[in-house]
Design brief:
Length: about 575
């Protein structure tokens, strides 16, 4: 796609920044120890000051909370732990007053087994709701229908004694996969999204949406392709694009919604199709390949130092490929399912501030819509964990047990969980240096990181050199600099062992980003085209130090140094 056609198709959300709110840990107004909807409403001025356009609110529906709200038991009601529908309506009103938008998380690959649909489906094989889910007879010799594995460990099949069949549950055993082959299921999904769109919701984040179409033969995985856990038979499945186009025609298009698809184990070609406007599917897509560069042989629950060259290569290839195919990236380092990027890819100790700013500059210079996960904008690291009892995440506790059963020592298993757990991202937002970091007047549902007196919003808003103000500047730049939206990506660093360097180029300007990902000084030799730049056209627009490097043939970057220039004209 040419730069011109990209400009013609540009939507408002291409200049926007999304802020992800994990409500349970954001702001508690009741003293329950759990964040709530009114807690978000209370902080909208803060988000507006940061420059946020879109707030992504994770699930607040009724749920037994086995997977922190991603196990939905009623899609049209608010879980009392988060408040009421009146609270939600108030949130929508306050967002409109600030010209901000709400993106609501939708979970339609599966529902809770406590959902009325599933409760009906297990009454008998003849129940009208039986076909809302994926039921199969035991294997001919008895046991599970195939060898597919749950994302949370163990078999993906759960046995129901009352009807003598298994149901598919790719995640927790209480999250039953919905049967999208059933037209009525697809209608229910569209109807529930219309319900929220009618309330004024401006968009949806679609949870693991590329898993909704399964190979209807349900074959065993022979292990010939890496992982061998069955995902090849339900990832980007045979009818997935057909189903998403249905949703676009029925909901996304008519309501002019901004949408992002969470894509598990996907490919670039699929993401181009999912997000190219001509395909009429999603506005943009998440992919997770760059967050697996510290997985040895793709194994999440093993440890290794991250592969810097792989990280750069993946980010670069997706920048080039998505642009050429007319797709659009959702840019992110962090979310509720990942350890903090600051602790994974940089220094969360002595160089924490420089590291946080470096990661921000690197990401926000790329093409796509940036996502900021709560706390990222103040440089929150992984918390310090002391004991396995401090963890709340069902995936983490399951894997701790499994690793122990497989022969790892308590120390080995605990070390892995401490670095890999989703709970690293889920500790409470650190608002101030008062009790419980200002998150709650009660006992928080999960521990607050002990470093909150030194890392909190209050201190950083008062400090113009803080991580917060660095993010604020980057978010503002995206609204005013067209090259950040339409500039084509060119990688410049040629496998430098410390530096990630790239340019973004449009018809008038060139944006240049240089980032040192190491704890040592780095010397980077500029490509010849940039060595003789007219200094009068060179503007430093972002940097993580008040002493920027001297422009010349070679540029020296301090530990975790990161700078963004625009060459005008």
């Amino acid at each position: 796609m040419t730069t011109k056609s990209l400009e013609n198709q540009a939507q408002w959300w291409r200049k926007s920044t999304v802020y992800q709110v994990y409500p349970r840990s954001f702001n508690d107004t009741t003293g329950s120890g759990i964040g709530d909807i009114r807690g978000l409403t209370e902080k909208l001025d803060y988000l507006q000051d940061l420059g946020i356009d879109i707030v992504w609110l994770q699930p607040v529906y009724n749920s037994p909370q086995n997977d922190n709200g991603y196990d939905v038991s009623d899609y049209r009601s608010i879980d009392p732990m988060y408040g009421t529908m009146d609270d939600f309506d108030e949130l929508m009103d306050e967002l409109r007053k600030r010209d901000m938008h709400l993106m609501l998380d939708i979970v339609v690959n599966h529902s809770s087994t406590e959902h009325e649909w599933f409760q009906q489906s297990r009454l008998s094989k003849d129940n009208p709701y039986r076909d809302y889910y994926i039921w199969r007879d035991p294997a001919p010799g008895g046991g599970v229908p195939n060898n597919w594995q749950s994302k949370f460990g163990g078999s993906a099949w759960q046995y129901d004694e009352a009807t003598g069949q298994y149901f598919l549950a790719l995640f927790d055993k209480t999250q039953a996969d919905l049967n999208w082959e059933n037209k009525q299921v697809r209608k229910e999904a569209a109807d529930l999204m219309r319900f929220w769109a009618d309330k004024g919701v401006d968009g949806f984040r679609m949870d693991v949406i590329n898993l909704i179409s399964k190979d209807q033969n349900f074959p065993d995985d022979d292990g010939s392709i890496m992982t061998g856990d069955g995902r090849r038979y339900y990832t980007d499945g045979p009818k997935v694009h057909e189903y998403i186009k249905e949703l676009y025609e029925q909901v996304y298009g008519p309501y002019d919604l901004v949408t992002v698809g969470e894509m598990s184990s996907t490919t670039m070609q699929h993401c181009i199709r999912y997000s190219n406007p001509e395909e009429r599917e999603f506005s943009m897509t998440f992919n997770f390949h760059h967050l697996k560069v510290d997985y040895p042989q793709g194994k999440k629950w093993e440890l290794m130092p991250y592969d810097f060259e792989a990280l750069k290569g993946l980010l670069s290839s997706w920048q080039v490929g998505m642009n050429e195919g007319g797709g659009w990236n959702a840019l992110f380092w962090n979310n509720h399912d990942q350890p903090r990027a600051l602790s994974r890819f940089a220094d969360d100790g002595q160089c924490r501030v420089a590291s946080a700013k470096m990661l921000a500059t690197t990401l926000h210079g790329l093409q796509g819509t940036p996502y900021v996960f709560q706390g990222e904008e103040i440089g929150m690291p992984n918390p310090n964990w002391n004991d396995i009892s401090e963890f709340r995440d069902i995936e983490s506790t399951n894997m701790y047990r499994i690793m122990m059963e497989m022969g790892k020592t308590e120390s080995e298993a605990f070390d892995i969980i401490s670095k890999r757990s989703r709970d690293n991202a889920r500790t409470p937002m650190q608002w101030n240096y008062g009790g419980q970091a200002g998150f709650t007047d009660g006992t928080p549902w999960i521990k607050v990181d002990e470093r909150y007196p030194e890392i909190n919003v209050k201190m950083q808003r008062e400090d113009p050199s803080s991580v917060f103000h660095h993010y604020r500047n980057l978010i503002a730049l995206r609204k005013t600099e067209p090259v950040l939206i339409d500039g084509r990506y060119v990688r410049l660093d040629e496998a430098h062992p410390q530096v990630f360097a790239y340019a973004r180029i449009n018809d008038t300007d060139t944006l240049l980003v240089l980032s040192n990902f190491s704890s040592e000084k780095a010397v980077f030799t500029l490509p010849e085209d940039y060595q003789s730049v007219d200094q009068g056209k060179l503007e430093l627009v972002s940097g993580n130090s008040d002493q920027p490097p001297v422009w010349g043939k070679q540029i020296t970057l301090d530990a975790y140094g990161s700078f963004m220039w625009i060459i005008r004209g």
